[in-house]
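WARN no homologs supplied; continuing
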Amino acid sequence: MTEFWESSFIEKQMMWGFEPSDSAILTKDFFLEKKVKDILIPGIGYGRNAKIFHDSRINVTGIEISKTAIDLAEQNGLDIRIYRGSVTDMPFSVRLS
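OK structure emitted
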């Protein structure tokens, strides 16, 4: 999977542009209404959907498998914490309620 996304971002760079998707805009509005303060975006890519949350003062953390995508996010001034790796490899603890 790493090779696929790395080669995609190398070849196509910002393949989806830098405007947020409609779903990100709707989600941002919902999060603001519910007073969400922190979010985690798996597969953050170069941050086109993260920027709208960050600009709305929601704390954003991302996880991205492609070093090129992370570099693109930084080159475009996205100043958020992005962890390099796969969400499928993250350690999760079990929480029983």
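The two ends are 34 Å apart (CA to CA).
OK
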